[in-house]
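The following block was generated as part of the benchmark described in Methods. Ligand: S-adenosylmethionine.
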Amino acid sequence: MDDTIELNPVEQKLVDDLLQELYRQRGLDYRNYSRTFLSRRISAFVKKQNFNSVEEMVERVMEHDEDLERFIGSLSLPTTRMFRDPQVFRYLRESIIPMLSRTHLTKVWSAGCSTGEETYSLAIILHEELPGRKILTFATDLNEKSLYKAKKGIYQVRRMRAYTLGYMASGGTRDFSNYYQADDENAIFNEDIKKNLVFAQHNLVTDSSFNEFDLILCRNVLIYFNRGLQERVVKLLSKSLRPGGVLILGDKESLRAMSSQNDFFELDRMLRVFRKRE
Ligand SMILES: C[S@@+](CC[C@H](N)C(=O)[O-])C[C@H]1O[C@@H](n2cnc3c(N)ncnc32)[C@H](O)[C@@H]1O
């Protein structure tokens, strides 16, 4: 169902003021997220919370902390799954990991990791392809609730069948069920997979770069930003990669016409894999 409504100029102004207030009060900067994304999320929020209008919603959110929290939650789109686009993980396994330096600690960043499914997929592949190597994987997101779930590494057991197929399509040949303990409802990933993962809150819009990484996955995050914000975030990602490091974006994202496009060359256009020039 498409729940998009075009915001009229008055509604747009109210929403802009609300986003400005959110930034002022909480430092959460949604001001340059794409208009389409914002109007879609706001329309869905108005409908779900049974507000009669955008005006009523803005008024309530400005005045009531619980509504504000709900509104913030509604702006986060945590949709994710393990081995999403398995051909990307296959490429990672077969072509990128063999390129990673064998001499230093390998540092990886899963930026916009949501509830962690991408990070655990990555951790499993690194565990299989680089046995015994020291690897540190940072996984960050803006959304605290998603990060809380990610840290736990607990997922519904009914999803494991699809994830096992994703694992196999990514070139995995082991028994996937050895990576987790399951009961009737949940599957919990093993300590062996979790031990090199560091989950932390990081806002790609307002926080700075915090390391020099060999590999960054930032998939399905840039699509929510407007052009100017995409530019800024790509600069941050470029700054956070060591020369020769690899960046992977989502399947609808690219570096085309970005000012930092020339920092990179394409390793695989279809899979959105880029390497930072040395
Ligand atoms: C659709 S999910 C993508 C999850 C995963 N990367 C994947 O491709 O399956 C987008 C994630 O981006 C996060 N996000 C949105 N704005 C962000 C920001 N400014 N800084 C960090 N994360 C952000 C959201 O909280 C959400 O978890």
